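This entry is passed on directly below:
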Amino acid sequence: MPSAEALTPRAIDILASLVAFDTTSRLSNLALIEWVEAYLDGHGVAHRRAPNHDGTKSNLLATVGPIVEGGVVLSGHTDVVPVDGQAWVTDPFVLTPKDDGRIYGRGTCDMKGFLALALAAVPDLAAADLKKPVHLAFSYDEEIGCLGAPDLIALIESELPRPALVVVGEPTDMVAVSGHKGISSFVVTVTGKEAHSSQTHLGVSANMEAVKLMAALSDLADRLEREADPASAFVPKHTTLTIGLVHGGTAGNILARECSFQFDLRCPPGQDPLEVLEPFFGQVAATDAAMKARFPEAGAKISRRSGTPAMSVEKDGAAEAFARRLAGDNGPARVVPYAAEAGQFQQAGFSTVICGPGSIDQAHQANEFVERSQMERGAAFMARLVDWAARGE
């Protein structure tokens, strides 16, 4: 079995390279993908892309070992959230280890740390006589709705012998997580008719109408909290609804021509987000009709921006058992309130688990970090993975 002590510094060196690429979701990830491709080429590992529709971003799929069934997919996303307006004390795109045992940089825990660990294992995997393959599945645009993973999953289904399981490396403190909430995001756009703010009879304010719709969502969020299942393992227990972005208005003395807002709904397994929102859809339609009756060019509409399914806890799940074995995890069953690509893999029929270095408490924050001890635990996981693939259990 390869040495975890040797894997750790290798992974941290790779992490420095990955963090240096600004792969904020609004930007391209192609420079990072090209770096990974060159790294894989250096170890004789075959790979291929699954780009987005205009070629500005891409997923990457690589296989180390024989092209046979029963392999393991190591899945992670390459994009990160913005640093705009955050009070960083270090350069977010320069990996900065400190004496406190923390390694700072954007994406260190969410989730380039896992990508670095997977890539650090490649030389050992390539040198071993593997009986089972290890597949690397790196996606784009997870942070804005898990948009890249469906094409990546379709590629795995169409071109690879069936893998046995998938490990999604979101930050879990290197313990197994077997369930997560789903997330659906929506954009509501209200179009008004501009007029002087003193002449409300000559126009309609998009902002004023949007506020009513946002109030309805606030009431729904309160109701969902009151109706929480007390037996739920999630924290928080209830389905959550939050409005994250609001844009509207031209000036303080003009009836707003347009107002838009974005919200997300996070449902536990078994709850249909469209059913939860059905009354709100009706309210948007009623608002649209009422506005159009006054001014035909006015109105309201709602569109779904993304929809990522929840991941359900699998009874006797192969992926969970695998991750627990490699991570040395004998703790209780765990679920998390955030959404991930794990639900998409599970929906495609793959046994799936979440297990990766770092804590979700540091994700998306200024001064994001991963502890070196977490990278060491991840390196031990990868060393055991190499041993498993070589023995072909």
Notes: Residues 182-308 form a domain with the Alpha-Beta Plaits fold (CATH 3.30.70.360). The longest strand covers residues 182-191. The chain has a mean pLDDT of 97. DSSP finds eleven helices and 15 strands in the chain.
